[in-house]
Amino acid sequence: MSAAHSAAVPAARLVKDLTRRYRLTSASKLLDIGGDGHFVDGLRTRGVTAFGLFDGAAPPRDPYANQPALIEMPQRQPAVLHQGIPFPAQSFECVLLRQTKTYDGSLASPEACTATANLLASLKPGGVLLWCVPVSRDELVSHLSAFPGQPQSVKLGTGGIAGALLRTIGIGRNSGLPAVEYRLPKEPISRLEWHRIARQAVMSAQQPAA
Questions:
Q1: Could you report the per-residue pLDDT of 28-72, keeping only the tens digit for each?
Q2: What is the C-alpha to C-alpha distance for residues 56 and 118, in angstroms, rounded to an integer?
Q3: Range of the domain at 18
Q4: What are phi and psi of 10, to 5 degrees?
């Protein structure tokens, strides 16, 4: 998974694929982390409530307390993922994670585990985290295994049915944005519970091997 892949897949193709694949409608909300804003614009054109975040200054301690509605928040705003996400818990059907400095180091670090807890807490029950950040596949699988959910490898922006037919005859087989789709359980999980799981993951990683 690489940032180069993300740049190579046109925003319009990602919009078309994700709205179809995850049945995004005017009632859906999506968070794009690390995008340039074009993907968010495309989703909004289709009526999907979409927002973007990028690495930047930490959000206020209680960033959504006085927000009358999610739709009134800015299109893109800064956030440090392990310090908090400026949206209420269980806000989104889908979170697309493309570029962030948060996961540059070890995925077993307290910052990485807390960031993932914040991302998962922002999803509704049964929601999907699409992980496109370029990290070691084995390390990512180990990282996500600490949290309840179902991961699988996918390629985003592959052109729907027509693209699938072309790939069966060898055309565009390597196209698309590689991602790990991580689907949450249907049962609600509180923000506090996600953070408890993250703390447990950090403690387990710090224990010396037997």
A1: 999 999 888 888 999 999 999 999 988 765 444 444 444 333 333
A2: 16
A3: 3-205
A4: -60, 145
